[in-house]
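Predict structure. Chain length: 153.
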Amino acid sequence: MSSNRRLTYLPDGLPIPVAEPDGLSAPYWAGLRRNRLMVQRCGHCTTWQFGPEWICHRCYAFDPEWTEIDPQGRIFSWERVWHPSHPVLKQHGPYLAVLVEIPHAGSVRMVGNLLGDPMQNISIGAQVEGVFEHHLSSDPPYSLLHWRLSSAL
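Prediction complete.
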């Protein structure tokens, strides 16, 4: 996206992220609306996991608990996207997509956008922190989690 100062990083016209009809990811999306990053942790074996599932990946216990974690991690992988898959993004490239590993939560990984100059140098292992982007006037309202280099604070 552009380096211009904007209230939101992503342009209007993208599909609105909502929880599945069964509500599996609803706690994740509700947490983002409150500036909280929620991931699952098994109450039986304490295994962390993301994306959400109805059962623990390790011990197969049902209904892992949702736990708030600090939105801080490190870049595990990244890509500079030149050819976006959604038509709304075609005039907003290149942009940076990162896979962030969160060591203090069992090293779960999640994908997101890296804010800042899309041509910036990126290093595997660079420390990042989460940035919440709220779309309160959308119907329904929603929030997203982006990432920025910790040195950009």
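Summary: Confidence is low (pLDDT under 50) at residues 1-6.
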